[in-house]
Write a structure and sequence with these properties.
3-stranded antiparallel beta sheet
């Protein structure tokens, strides 16, 4: 069975993070009214493209560019879930967590 188109779309979203200009690239996938709810010491509730991409940059800064995600994706017509093993390592600190992110998908 071929992968759902929204799973492919979400993979394209995550591939943005392989590029230095990812804050501009991810904006192509997010609605202006995007809301990101986080549940870790650096997270919170972020509303709008600027707030969400600024938070993404904070993760990069805190990990000194070492944050990596090994991601599995499931999707249907209206929702997607990305399951991650997240890792980062800076001197004297190693981070490893198993996390998930849910997405509500809309077209237009």
């Amino acid at each position: 069975m071929p992968e759902h188109a929204n799973a492919q779309r979400l993979r394209a979203f995550y591939s943005c993070f392989e590029h230095a200009d990812y804050p501009a690239r991810v904006r192509e996938f997010l609605a202006p009214c995007v809301v990101w709810h986080g549940d870790n010491p650096f997270a919170g509730d972020f509303r709008g493209l600027d707030a969400v991409t600024e938070q993404m940059l904070r993760y990069e800064d805190h990990s000194r560019g070492t944050l990596r995600l090994d991601t599995s994706i499931m999707a249907n017509d209206t929702h997607a879930v990305a399951i991650h093993t997240a890792t980062a390592s800076i001197p004297d600190v190693t981070y490893s967590a198993h996390k998930w992110t849910s997405f509500t998908l809309r077209t237009g």
